[in-house]
Amino acid sequence: MRLLYLDPLFTSIEQYRQNHLRHHIHLNTEHDPDWVAKLGKRAFTFPKTKREFLSTVFSYLVLYQGIQDAIWFLKRFGSSEAKSGKKSGNPKVRLLFYIVLFTALTIGGLWKYYALFWVVPYLSTFFMFQYIRSVAEHFGELAYDHLLTSTRSVKANLLERFFIAPHQVGYHLEHHL
After folding, report:
1. N or C: which end of the chain has fewer CB within 10 A?
2. Is the pLDDT of residue 120 over 60?
3. Confidence label for 13 from pLDDT (cuts 50, 70 and 90)
4. Where do the domains of the chain lie?
5. More confident residue, 7 or 126
């Protein structure tokens, strides 16, 4: 399953778990890797006008911000793997996955479909929904002095649950507790 879910995102469950555990242990402090990575970035500086927020969302839809996020994501998780000295999974299996994928796309003449149905959504809506969820859970008008005030739960409607908060992830405060 890793080949279908994580390798196409250029990460591993080990990397995600390691990062997420540090995020939980050091929530919204200088030791929280998610907080530090976003601190000072214009997109995560609040308060923000509706126009500024919509401009940020639009920058994802035209792939501008998604490309920047993808580069940041690869640098961040690649460097965390290098720092820890741990390899995520078998690199030969991962390399074989990419060789098979690129060979199949080339032989089948499927590159335009791969770009249209994988690359474009990854660089636009995937990162856009991650951004919206991150903002809803951890930014804007929160007091960061206690676990109970460092994150919030979000009551999502049906459409929001489908796109942004599936599997009840809107209960973010409860998740941290």
Report:
1. N
2. yes
3. confident
4. 2-139
5. 126
DSSP state letters, the chain:
-HHHHTGGGT--HHHHHHHHHHHHHTTTSTT-HHHHHHTT-GGG-SS--HHHHHHHHHHHHTTHHHHHHHHHHHHHHHHHHHHHT---S-HHHHHHHHHHHHHHHHHTT-HHHHIIIIIHHIIIIIHHHHHHHHHHHH-SS--TTSGGGS-------HHHHHHT-GGGTT-HHHHH-
Considering only CA atoms, give the Rg of the chain: 18
Place of tokens 């500024």: 52
pTM confidence score? 0.83
Contacts of 53 (CB under 8 A, 6+ apart): none
